[in-house]
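Lab notebook, bench 4. Still working through the backlog of constructs that have no structural model yet. Next entry is a single chain of 78 residues. Request: give me the structure tokens for it.
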Amino acid sequence: MARGFESKSVADQQESARETRAKKGDGGNDPMLLQKRRRLELGRADVLRHMESATAEGHRQMLKRALDALDRELASLR
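Model written out:
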């Protein structure tokens, strides 16, 4: 087998993997995307922790809206 043919096959496999990630919206190992996802997950955990101790109904509703917004943003990253 010629060396050039082997390299072409590897390049085709890499391109195929990039296309698959792009179709899934995965973003691969994009550090900015991973950082944003992690920040949203931490924010979500914080809101849930606050909901457990919230006693005022208005405060609970505000936290629920914040949780819904975080969930929507997280879903858009997947």
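Notes after review: The chain has one domain: 3-77. The chain is about 85% helix and 0% strand. Flag for follow-up if needed.
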